[in-house]
Design a protein that fits this description.
Layout: E1 2-7, E2 10-13, E3 18-26, E4 31-39, E5 46-51, E6 57-59, E7 67-72, E8 77-82, E9 91-99, E10 102-105, E11 109-114
Parallel strand pairs: 2-11
Antiparallel strand pairs: 1-3, 3-8, 4-5, 4-9, 5-6, 7-8, 9-10, 9-11
């Protein structure tokens, strides 16, 4: 079992920055991929960025060049640095982890970007 706890969300003006953190606990040694997803009101959850255990990253087109995902394997933590935030980035952001084919989700953290 893996548990994920996100932090770092909040309210920010357009153009501002936020840094999200996701700390994993439990059987973390088997985690391969970790990622960030988001879900805006009335919309489906979408992938924002993922990072593999060897550091390879993938970003959605909507955040490329503005967001950066990183991972501290020693601390079992994944980060999402969000710059140049836009109102359309407003959503609940969820962290997930893939372990032996099983996906675990965090509880989510709200990010609100005001115009």
């Amino acid at each position: 079992q893996v548990q994920l706890v996100e932090s770092g969300g909040g309210l920010v003006q357009a153009g501002g920055s936020l840094r999200l953190s996701c700390a994993a606990s439990g059987r973390t040694s088997s985690i391969t991929v970790m990622g960030w997803y988001r879900q805006a009101p009335g919309k489906q959850r979408e992938r924002v960025a993922i990072i593999s255990i060897d550091g390879r990253t993938t970003y959605s087109d909507s955040v490329k060049g503005r967001f950066s995902i990183s991972r501290d394997n020693a601390k079992n933590t994944v980060f999402l640095q969000m710059n140049s935030l836009k109102p359309e980035d407003t959503a609940v952001y969820y962290c997930n982890a893939v372990m032996l084919g099983v996906v675990t989700w965090g509880q989510g953290t709200q990010v609100t970007v005001s115009s």
